[in-house]
Design a protein that fits this description.
eleven-stranded mixed β-sheet, alpha/beta, 21 strands, 559 residues, four-stranded antiparallel β-sheet, globular, single chain, 12 helices
């Protein structure tokens, strides 16, 4: 009998422990997504979305700026609500989120304009890497400009929140001397331009990652519809299969160490024999490809988790890594898809496209006329022309170091701010009844007159058209044979509108003109605001980018 009672007591204790254990698993911690944090900025003049996770069925209370709103966590533990629109404010306030057991406080919160800055390394480049960093960082004193850098997270499937792997990641910071060196350079100058004119707090969320291609920022479903994406998915799946064969992180690292040891032995033996040995094993081949750059990877890990955050607009600087080999081929579809994807995620927001600059040196006329960067810039231009609520910012004239990472980010950021202020906010110029202008001359059409070609630009963009008479570089002209030559150019005025005349003694019967058409464009054509003319061409001839099979022809696959 005693043994039976003892067994009953043990069974009861076991049941109790199981119940307690299960109840603890059901009691989820009250938390907000990683994008919320001290010193953040919330978007003004529109309802503000707040969300997070808690125990299923738990009542959640949010308090901010005198408002109190409640909701209940769903069966999936997620909760979401909105607080009413607020005016901009420099007053530091506290966002309080309370559940049945826990309370979370987000302190020093401002309300103003919040922009998403995405792309690759030229957006990612921090203030610490830009020219004039010694002066700019030392003088930065903007308590009302805040920035957040989203950690580099690539995932095979969409994530509900950002992965934080180390302390200090994903924290909002002020643009002051102490921290601004880590802020995106383009984003900083852009935010400073808005801050000075709008007189409101500005928040920048940086989702850039060097070396990414357009297809990395789009979900898999959309990419599957693009035929040119098949080889990229095939490569990714092959790497996934190889990773799965390793059997996990530990096994993969063991395989890498074994391969490295063998290489070191083979290399030592080859050196002794004065022979060459194969290259050192690539550590990246022994890492999880789902955590590396791959189609949809950055969308899954960096965009999807913040899709409910409220922004005023988007600034996107990407295209360089679609300018190598044959990576230009899907760009006609993937670049417009970035805009479509991000607008589905964040709403129908204004989208600023920063046109890539270029790098290296010019080599030959054929090389210049067929370079991948021309394809990328043209697709960016055509996407801008075909897509509402977008802007295009030229940068080719800002590259003074001839590298793929121009250090002069101030003109890029300030031109981007011009676009936002004039086009998005409708700010008028000083002593003017019209919005701030941001466009340089935009090509409209041409007419051949004897041995010269007259170029027309969109009227509103070419007032005060100018070019240095001693420096009319960047112009190319060709006859029926398609052979381009360097050309001369002069500004003329027809019926009160500035136009451009282009010619060359080597081409007596011209049929086509191109401007700033090169890997590293050179040209000084601008308007009275000294805003550069966008690269253009009057022809639609096929181009064959070097290191590529197949041709690019504008209009065949036009966004």
């Amino acid at each position: 009998m005693r043994n039976l009672c003892k067994q009953c007591m043990q069974c009861s204790l076991l049941v109790l422990l199981l119940v307690v254990g299960n109840s603890e698993e059901l009691l989820a911690e009250l938390r907000l997504p990683a994008i919320f944090g001290d010193q953040m900025v919330l978007q003004q003049k529109q309802p503000i979305t707040i969300w997070g996770w808690a125990t299923a069925g738990e009542k959640i209370r949010v308090e901010f700026a005198g408002q109190k709103v409640e909701t209940t966590a769903g069966k999936d533990t997620r909760w979401q609500l909105q607080i009413a629109a607020l005016d901009a404010s420099f007053e530091a306030q506290t966002l309080v989120v309370s559940g049945d057991r826990d309370t979370v406080q987000i302190k020093d919160v401002l309300v103003g304009e919040v922009w998403l800055c995405g792309g690759q390394s030229n957006m990612e480049m921090t203030m610490g890497g830009t020219v004039n960093r010694d002066l700019e960082i030392a003088s930065a004193d903007y308590e009302g400009i805040r920035f957040l850098r989203i950690p580099h997270v690539s995932q095979g499937e969409p994530r509900e929140d950002i992965i934080i792997e180390k302390d200090g990641d994903c924290q909002w910071q002020r643009c002051t001397t102490e921290s601004v060196a880590e802020c995106t350079g383009v984003g900083y100058y852009f935010a400073r331009g808005l801050h000075r004119i709008l007189k409101v707090p500005v928040g920048i969320v940086d989702v850039s990652w060097g070396g990414t291609m357009a297809q990395h920022w789009i979900n898999e479903e959309k990419l599957n519809a693009v035929a040119e994406m098949k080889p990229y998915f095939a490569d990714y799946n092959e790497r996934l299969s190889r990773w799965n064969e390793f059997g996990g992180e530990a096994q993969a690292q063991a395989a890498y160490q074994a391969a490295l040891a063998k290489w070191e032995s083979d290399n030592a033996e080859a050196l002794a024999k004065k022979e060459r040995v194969a290259g050192r094993p690539n550590a990246g081949q022994y890492e999880n490809p789902a955590r590396q750059r791959h189609p949809a990877g950055m969308y899954n890990g960096m965009i999807h988790p913040i899709r409910d955050f409220d922004f005023r607009g988007i600034l996107f600087y990407q295209g360089e890594n679609n300018s190598f080999g044959e990576s230009w081929k899907p760009f006609y579809a993937t670049f417009p898809l970035v805009i479509q994807q991000w607008r589905e995620s964040f709403g129908d927001l204004p989208f600023g496209i920063i046109q890539i600059a270029g790098w290296s040196s010019r080599r030959s006329m054929t090389y210049d006329m067929n370079h991948h960067t021309n394809v990328i810039r043209e697709i960016q231009f055509d996407t801008w022309q075909a897509t509402q609520q977008t802007g295009l910012i030229a940068t080719y004239d800002t590259n003074s170091n001839q590298g793929i990472h121009p250090g002069a980010k101030r003109p890029v950021g300030e031109r981007s701010a011009r676009w936002a202020l004039g086009s998005v906010y409708g700010v008028k110029g000083f002593r003017s009844n019209t919005a701030i202008s941001y466009l340089g001359p935009v090509y409209e059409g041409y007419e051949v007159q004897d041995s010269k070609v007259e170029i027309r630009f969109v009227k509103e963009t070419c007032a005060g058209l100018r070019i240095n008479k001693d420096d009319d570089v960047g112009f190319y002209i060709a006859g029926e044979n398609g052979e381009f030559h360097h050309a001369r150019a002069r500004v003329t005025r027809v019926e009160g509108v500035d136009r451009l005349v282009v010619w060359s003694d080597d081409v007596p019967q011209p049929v086509a003109v191109r401007y700033a058409w090169s890997n590293l464009p050179n040209g000084r054509l601008m308007n009275s605001r000294e805003l550069p003319a966008f690269p253009f061409r009057t022809d639609d001839w096929k181009m064959t980018p070097h290191q590529s099979e197949g041709d690019y022809q504008r209009g065949i696959r036009k966004p």
